[in-house]
Design a protein that fits this description.
Endonuclease, Chain A, four-stranded mixed beta sheet, single chain, 12 helices, 4 strands
Length: 253
């Protein structure tokens, strides 16, 4: 054992467990429920100054993957405090409480400020969704690669004009100022396939708003249906690409 490292005996560990669980052991010490409540409701623990100090000290502190795994394993199925894991009835009570109008109003009030909303938007913009590319998206990516066209996947584009602030597109071709959306026939309501989902109306409305917003910028959008991808029919992309390349050749010619 390294110098300065102290290993507790099993008896000492059991005494500490007894203290935490509020049980009386051989030494006669006991944490009453009032003492436990007072400990966690102490002003020092609740003050913003104390939290800021803890945050500043912890920020940038390296934690090894082994340590993270141990912490995760130790927290599995547990909650902070002496009562242990939450029961199903307790979880249900929390869920019901969160659905009450006053609880919902409190959550809405917390995000009313524009500064908070902007932080939420920025955090969502950094997310990459979906985590895994769909099969039609992969086919389109392979087609662009075969043509030697560079692209970026799931990139967020800020659209300051129009009714849409920003959107994460399936593919982005920065050299052509072109974004591509691969629309699933079921989720986006393809009229040719006749597939319908409960989200068709909402998704179609969103697609229309995005198309209108992107036209107010220097970018162009190309949409391709899933059934066209499966048939290897990339004409909707080729038409836009060929027009872009033709204009570029004329400018440089």
């Amino acid at each position: 054992m390294p110098k300065g490292v102290y290993e507790r005996s099993e008896v000492q560990k059991q005494r500490l467990r007894s203290l935490w669980n509020g049980e009386k052991h051989a030494l006669g010490y006991k944490f009453t429920p009032e003492q436990i409540k007072a400990r966690y409701s102490h002003p020092v623990w609740r003050s913003q100054e104390f939290r800021d100090k803890i945050s500043k000290v912890s920020k940038g502190h390296p934690v090894s993957p082994e340590t993270r795994a141990k912490i995760s394993k130790g927290h599995a199925g547990k909650t902070y405090g002496p009562r242990g894991p939450l029961s199903d009835s307790h979880k249900l009570a929390i869920s019901i409480a969160n659905r009450r109008p006053e609880a919902q109003a409190k959550r809405i009030a917390a995000v009313k400020s524009e500064a908070v909303r902007e932080k939420i938007r920025a955090a969502r913009a950094r997310q990459v969704l979906p985590v895994k590319d769909s099969k039609p998206e992969v086919i389109v990516q392979e087609y662009l690669t075969s043509r030697g066209i560079a692209f970026e996947k799931h990139k967020t584009l800020a659209i300051l004009e129009g009714s849409v602030r920003r959107h994460q597109f399936d593919l982005m071709l920065s050299q052509f100022n072109l974004v591509i959306e691969v629309d699933g026939c079921f989720w986006h309501g393809c009229d040719s396939c006749g597939l319908k989902s409960p989200m068709n109306g909402k998704n179609k409305e969103r697609d229309t708003r995005i198309d209108s917003a992107i036209r107010l910028t220097e970018w162009t959008i190309a949409r391709i249906w899933e059934h066209d991808v499966n048939d290897r029919n990339f004409s909707s992309i080729d038409i836009v690409l060929n027009n872009k390349q033709h204009k570029e050749n004329q400018q440089h010619g």
